[in-house]
Amino acid sequence: MKITSLALSLLLLATTALRAQTPAPAVKPAAPAVVMPPQPPDVPAEKYGKDGKINPGFIASHAKFVSIAKEGKAQLVFLGDSITAGWAGNGKEVWAKSFAGYTPANFGIGGDRTQHVLWRILNGELEVIKPKAFVLMIGTNNVGGDSAEGIAKGVTVIVETIRAKQPQAKILLLAVFPRGEKASPNPGRDKLKQVNAIIAKLDDSKNIFFLDIGGKFMQPDGSLTKEIMPDFLHLSPAGYQIWADAIGPKLTELMK
């Protein structure tokens, strides 16, 4: 059947009118930006993800550490971030060879800052266990957002908390390790030097012992190599051997 020009025009008009009556699909408003809660370096805080929710990996690791603590067996506890957590990775063989005799526990979580370690030790990781010593190294993840004074204050509160909860234990407080390939220009390293200068004063040669082993990872010109720190932050197996060798004599003394 042929469609006349008049019929075609009427059909087009009807279609246009129908489209005009059909409501446009609703446009969903953009999701509001996630606002992360403020986390001062000396105030205990759980770790949040980019979605604004508590990081599930952080909570899972913390729960595991609390369980280990409640067993009451650990005599040597390492506290820190991914560099400490790496004892279970690149440092696994060195750990077994150097520390197994001390009944050690590794309470390191990747990405942790001072406020996260503080929250963890206030929420179960120091319960039941009565270790002879702690090895603490924390603060490098605070460099991007906190002042040297703020980071040092966070470390100080952690040390004070360990002393209050575990008065029988000695604390081997390590200077925060150097980061970045070159010694200069290196704002991150410069800030950590300031942090280390402040926390070094916590050493009382009785219960708290400060030890700066950062120089052992560096070349004579202050640079770091990929053989020791593949990404100029985290340690290789050779780097963990340097760490173990550097603290070995002091740990022998503290673990008596």
Structure notes:
The protein has about 260 residues and is an alpha/beta fold. The chain has a single domain (about 50-255), classed as Rossmann fold (3-Layer(aba) Sandwich), CATH 3.40.50. Helix content is about 40%, strand content about 10%. The chain has 8 helices and 5 strands. It has a 5-stranded parallel sheet with strand order 2-1-3-4-5, sandwiched between helices. Helix 4 (about 90-100) runs parallel beside helix 8 (about 235-255). The termini are far apart. Residues about 10-15 and about 30-35 have low confidence and may be disordered.
Report a brief summary of the structure:
With 256 residues, the protein is of the alpha/beta class. It has eight helices and five strands.
CATH class membership:
Alpha Beta
Strand order of the largest sheet: 2-1-3-4-5
Task: Enter the CATH topology name.
Answer: Rossmann fold
Mean pLDDT across all amino acids: 90
- What string, H for helix and E for strand, traces the elements in order? HHEHHEHEHEHEH
CATH architecture: 3-Layer(aba) Sandwich
* Estimated helix fraction: 25-40%
What global shape is seen? globular
Q: What is the overall number of helices?
A: 8
